Prior knowledge:
By secondary structure, the chain is mostly beta strands. The protein contains three helices and ten strands.
Amino acid sequence: MTGGTRGSCRIGVISDTHGLVRPQALAALRGSDLIIHAGDVGAPEVLERLRGLAPVAAVRGNVDRGAWADALPEERTVEVGGARIHVIHDLKAMAAAPEGCRLVISGHSHKPSIQRRDGVLYLNPGSAGPRRFTLPVAVATVRLSSRGLRPRLVELTV
């Protein structure tokens, strides 16, 4: 999957939906050029709803089971606007960011976070599905332009 190298690109990032597609999540992701789902999708209908907004690149999470989920890779690298982005559900399963990747997207912990380490941006959008403990329900966006990657966490009001 590639995007153009001119202008800017908006990437919507979602994870841990566990079968629940909230209208607030769809509203936050509307206008994305690409949506990345970092696993624990929960049901194929989730991906179908997201595809109604933009192309989707998804990985399989630990709760994803069945033929539909078997078609999803455990991890993948996509190229968007000249930037390599690696997607994996559980960051602990990855030894190091693949060579040349500027952004690593993960889920699993349900804890939204943005960190930079060794020149790589690490983004976990948190969980957009059922609330877990007192953690926020959230998604993220990443604006990719000639000025670089600008991530933003979006807490959903639910």
